[in-house]
Amino acid sequence: MKLSLQIRAILTITLITISSMLFAQTCPTISNITSSTAVCAGSSISLQVTATSPGGSPLTYAWFKNGSAIPNATNFKYDITNFQQSDADVYFVRVSNACNTPTQSADIRLTLKDKPSITSFSTSPQTICTGSNYTIQVSGNDNGGGTITYQWKKGASIISNANAATYTLSNIQSGDAALYSVTLSNGCGNVTSSDFQLNVNQKPSITVNPNPTNVLCAGATLTLNADVISATSYKWQKDGVDIGNTTKTLTIPSVAASNAGVYTFVATNDCGNSTSGTAQVTIKDKPSITGISAPTNVCAGATASLVATVVPNGDNNLTYAWALNGTAVPNGNGATLVVPNFQAANAGTYSFTVTNSCGSTSSATNNQNVTIQLITTPSIATISNQSVCINTSLLVTTTITNLGSINPTYQWYFNGSAISGQTSSQLNISNIQTNKAGRYFVTVNNGCTPTISSNEFNVTVLDAPTIQTHPTALTETCSATSFSLSVAANNTQSYQWLKNDVAINNATSSSYTIASVASSDAATYKVVVSNSCGNNVTSNAAVLVVKSAPTVQTSASSNTLCVGTSHTLQVSAVTNNGGSLTYQWKKGGVNIANATTASLVLTNLQTSSTGIYTVDVTNSCGTTTSPDYTITVSQAPIITLDPISQALCAGATATFTANVTGSTSVKWQKNGVDVGNTTTTLSLSNIAAANAGSYTLLATNSCGTTTSAVATLTVNNKPTINSLTSSSPVCAGATATITSAVTPNGDNNLTYSWSLNGTAVNGNLPTLSIPNFQSANAGTYALVVTNSCGSTTSSATTTLQLQPTPSVANIADQTVCQGGTLNVAPTYTNVSGGNVTYQWYFEGNLINNQNTAQQLNQ
Questions:
Q1: Nearest 5°: CA angle at 54, between 49 and 58?
Q2: Is the pTM of this model over 0.70?
Q3: Most buried of 71, 260, 776, 832 (most Cβ within 10 A)?
Q4: Which residues pair with 780 in a beta bridge?
């Protein structure tokens, strides 16, 4: 209630004060305010108001942005520095005085303007050819900052009168290559573009022209060199046509006439082509010989002239050389060679060589050499005697050397007299009769020497042949001896011996001889006697019977037999007309006693019977030895090394080895069953108990099987700990016993290692005895048992606990009413375990039936 009265008093006072102000003050008057404007980004602007307070009371100011009061903006002006987009807004100010009703200014609208921004400008380098025009262009946004002005720069230098959005370079030259930029300006500032790289290229500049004059010999190498700068490609042209070479050096090996012409080097880049000066290429060649005229035959003492026709092929400075049979001819240095008083030394093959600066050409190259023969005394080859059939034509030709003339004269003679009309190189007498048989010769004249005569030759005029003596009718002989037949006949020119009416090659004389007859020569022989007139007569038959050593018909053989068996060798032979046969068997080339029949019986064969057997078969013409009959006597295999029994640990590798001779196959068995191994070594890796057993090697050949001695494989293993047996807890001072049950697994040589809580304790027997058991002996016991195959640690341990002496907490004296029940529940310690017994006493005497732990009920 009291508080309530105080509040009313304050309100009353406040109302009186306000009422007094309302009647005493006039609100402020604003006479001037900053106009709305656009402000450059980053610049400063001061918003100002001019106001008066009619009553003279102090003025206060509050600036607003977008209708919200601006903190701490309480002065007649409000400054904005670093104007940004966030500052662009609508501002006004409220001016207050004591009238407490503020006067609000008109809105001031501030907008952001900025220096220009570049919206597009070429940033990629451009390469322009000299002489061309190029325009660089920029696009910009004034960003409200007013009209944009432009200023272009080349490098760091201002370009005069370059004040537009584009800058054009006309007739560009290499000096125009530079970095170009443009600066855009407005009322808020300026911005400069990135650099624009302008590269200026020009057409290639040829710095080295090819040699203008080139004269070469055919076959030489033409090399034209040019050099150029600023080219991206180049090529060579001949007579204005590309020739496929795109390097600075044109090389044409072994030039020919087709390579002559005008060559230019054309270099190209993006700005065009440049062509070098011309290179005139002229090809000359060594001279050519079109022909040599010369006589073929020259009489002794005459003059021979040889004339060569030559084409100089571009070089008329020629030299000449003549040679005879490869030797230079003295004074033979002109295109014409004159040989006076022609003799044998001048005859031969003439060659001609002509030379200019490009080389030499010889007539031998194109087979243009000429051969001149000396016409000397002709030589007529000997004419052989002639045989001609009656009523036919006699034709005799001549072979004449050194004739030399193309129009020689001939004359044939018979018995010394010239034959009318026979004046050619061939004698031709038709329908000849026996009266024309006689002596003939021919003469020849070649116009340079006296007439030459041939030799005289006989001409026989033939009639039909006759046989005077026939060959022997029957001949018997052994093979490899000599055999001859002969015949005597008249009017014959040729003989042909026949064997079984078939002509014998090269048997064409009056006799036929076989130096060493064979059985294949046995036949009927005849001879056909004939002459060139087509007449022939056949002799009587002559029979040849050929005897020979026996032929053995039984082929070679090879037999492999077992010891103790029997075998018979049998031979079959043909007598070949040589009479009865005899036999002699041999072993290794040595006669076998009493082995003289066609068969050899071998009984109870032994290894010593092995060998090569042959038999000699004989008749009246000789002995024939049979092919080899090979006997090999084998026995069952022999085992030279037996496998050895082994006792190994499981997981090891067992290897059994045996050696055997004479076997064709071997195999291993385990307990009489094949194990699949067919070598003399059996290797069993990572063996286990299943591998234990009896192993043998069986060796086999065609004569049987031999079994090795038995090798036993025993597979041991590390021991197995079946159990550890103990009693716990153990009373202090008592003897504790831990008994192990162990399976040795094949190796009974066991060692025992006991440990307590991981620490070894004395004890190397299957049973660990611990006398005077104390707390130090309590803990977990483990056992490790070892044999030759390894150690086994018991999977289960046994723990021995010390059984301490029980204690009973003091039992307080008890008071109980007579006739009531006495209940006592003592507190025990160290009474764990299942063998704790209790006994209560009264006045030192045992109380019967009071043997429970917790309660005495008396």
A1: 65
A2: no
A3: 260
A4: 799
